[in-house]
Design a protein that fits this description.
Blueprint: H1 11-16, H2 20-25, E1 26-31, H3 37-43, E2 52-57, E3 79-86, H4 95-109, E4 115-117, E5 121-124, E6 127-139, E7 142-151, H5 168-172, H6 178-198, H7 202-208, E8 218-221, E9 224-234, E10 240-244, E11 250-253, E12 260-262
Parallel strand pairs: 1-2
Antiparallel strand pairs: 2-3, 3-7, 4-5, 5-6, 6-7, 8-9, 8-12, 9-10, 10-11
Amino acid sequence: MEVVNKNPLDKKKILSKLNNHLRTRVSLEIFDSISSTNDFLLKREIKEDKKMKICIAEEQTKGRGRRGKSWISPKFKNIYFSLGSFLKKEDLSGLSIATALSVSEVLTEFNIKALIKWPNDLLVKNKKICGILIETAKEDELIKVVIGIGLNVNMEYSELIDQKWTSMKLEKKQSIDRNLIIVEMIKKLSSTLIKFEREDFGYFNERFAPLDILRNKEFTLKENPSVTYTGKGIDNKGLLIAQNLKGQNIVKFSSGEVSLKLDK
């Protein structure tokens, strides 16, 4: 049986809702099916016209999450979105937090409150609604940054996801136009990237604190589940600060070293 797409991604509709300035800064491509939106932008030359390159797809056949995990990408249901740009700032520590804050603000506009599980997952009622994957590539003397966002929008069931999850439709009890969400994502991320280059990370840390799902909560590391920690926020580099409950010592973790699992 052929699946009917009742809410197709619409390039014209998305661009029409951006202001003139932002519209001239964005190069948008939409695919019916693609292996990975991140891979597409990583392989593409994006510095020629200095525009932000955005790739969106109805379906990913080889979607990726962090640490090589697959990202389940059913067709026509969710948002598979990647943004490619060059940042003048060499230290990209905390960019995943800044991105997560942008997506959280978009969800708030749709009356959905999402908390952030460091470093780059968004949860609603302890169920994952969004994941972020940031990748970089060196081009001459420049660093290309590709921000990948997978957001569950109209998905209602999946037997392939091995963790608790939710979607905007499940939370709102109604279908949502993905094009309107994408418009807001482009606006927020464009503003965030400008601020990330100009502002000290403390600007984002202050906004992150009330959304930090690990703060004063117990958790374990997936690689060493026998040790329990309590979250104590993040530092000015976006590193997780935690207290070992057994030894009471304070430790820090970088996004490249740990995968977190909420216990409660």
